[in-house]
Amino acid sequence: MPKVELHVHLEGSIRPETVLKLAERNNVSLPANTVEGLAEWYTFRDFPHFVDVYVAVSKCIRTADDLEFVAREFLEGQADQNVLHTEITFTASTIEKYAGIPWEEQFKALGRARAYGEKELGVTCGYIIDIVRGDPAERGLEVAQWALAGREYGVCALGLSGEERFGSDAYREAYDLARSEGLPIAAHAGETKGAESIREICSLTDPERIGHGVRILEDPKLTREFFLNQKPLEVCPTSNIRLGVFSALSDHPLPRMLDEGLYVTLNSDDPPMFGTTLTDEFIRCAEAFDFSEDILWTLTHNAAKAAFLPAEQRSELVQNVREEFNALQDESK
After folding, report:
1. Do 68 and 154 contact (CB within 8 A), yes or no?
2. Using CA atoms, how far apart are residues 100 and 90, in angstroms rounded to an integer?
3. Measured distance CA(309)–CA(307) in Å, rounded
4. E strand or H helix at 143, and its extent?
5. Distance in angstroms (rounded) separating the CA atoms of residues 47 and 162
6. How far is Cα 288 from Cα 286, in angstroms, rounded to an integer?
7. What phi, psi does 61 have (nearest 5°)?
8. For 99-142, what is each residue's pLDDT tens digit?
9. 11 an active-site residue?
10. How many CA atoms lie within 13 A of 222 on its CB side?
């Protein structure tokens, strides 16, 4: 099935084998030195533990070549799944902090990987450069400036991630700068905190997309607003289960979100860390919720239409998804 992914973190997508290879190459100490050991370490206790794991994996990237390598490998995995377009969240500030790689070198490396994906693999991508909640306001503004300067290398949006308990008000100036320059905003909200987190970020900057947003049903009024505005939500079911937002897939609100007419897309978040892929997300949800082909099409079509692409490229992506999906249906008849 053709697919489009809007919510996946580059650093959280590094395969365990690659993490070990980078750690050995760069003399980085990890809590485990086998794939099995890493899998056990990845068994998260809570969100702060997840952040610790994420940062430790990020520290294994030490050079621009490392970054290009993991981005190429990631795109190869997307191509293997027939993910036609991916918008990849990347935390340039963390890599700059721990590896000292200047932002422009990072973006050039990502740009080379992007060109490789398009030319050699036939897949496209864009990068969402995110502010990390809890960082100082000045750092958030700096990241916004990097994101604007990085558009020539494939940066397509300014993101916001990290622990929701820190809030997002500190980054108002960063949002305003992005807005003034026409750079879209995609913000994580409504995951580990309730619907109030979604309302907070929407009141500050009205982002084009919300990452996760699965707690929105706790606020019927907000749910109604999102239905009327058809603002896209980037839902990552396995991630929500692994991080304890919901106890089991059967408890996940995805079917109810669709029933409410919300604009939903399906995503993998941090695939190796959560033992999933985008393909797995579709299979698991189709089986758990008895999704029809029409629903699978809707989820895919939604993602293509919500991509941060120029209008002509977005229309072409939507058309390609439609043609491939129709061909699959014809084959099955």
Report:
1. no
2. 16
3. 6
4. helix 137-149
5. 9
6. 6
7. -85, 120
8. 899 999 999 999 999 999 999 999 999 999 999 999 999 999 99
9. no
10. 22
Mean of per-residue pLDDT scores for the chain: 94
Buried b (16+ CB within 10 A) or exposed e, 170-188: bbeebbebbbeeebbbbbb
Q: Could you read off the pLDDT of 245-267 as tens digits, one per residue?
A: 999 999 999 999 999 999 999 99
Question: Angle at the Cα of 210 (from 1 to 225), degrees rounded to 5?
Answer: 110
Catalytic residue among 11, 87, 191, 234: 191
- The domain locations on the chain are 3-12+71-332
What is the residue type of 19? V
Residue type, 222: L
Q: Grade residue 40 by pLDDT with cuts at 50, 70 and 90.
A: confident
pLDDT band at 44 (very low <50, low <70, confident <90, very high): low
CA distances from 39 to 23, 27, 32, 148 (A): 16, 20, 9, 37
**12 with 270: CB under 8 angstroms?**
yes
Q: Please say whether the dihedral angle defined by the alpha carbons of residues 22, 23, 25 and 28, taken in this order, is positive or negative.
A: positive
The per-residue pLDDT for 57 is 84
Q: What does the block give as tokens for 284?
A: 């698991």
Higher pLDDT, 330 or 260: 260
- The fold of the 3-12+71-332 domain, in CATH, is TIM Barrel (3.20.20)
Report d(CA 235, CA 239) in Å as an integer.
9
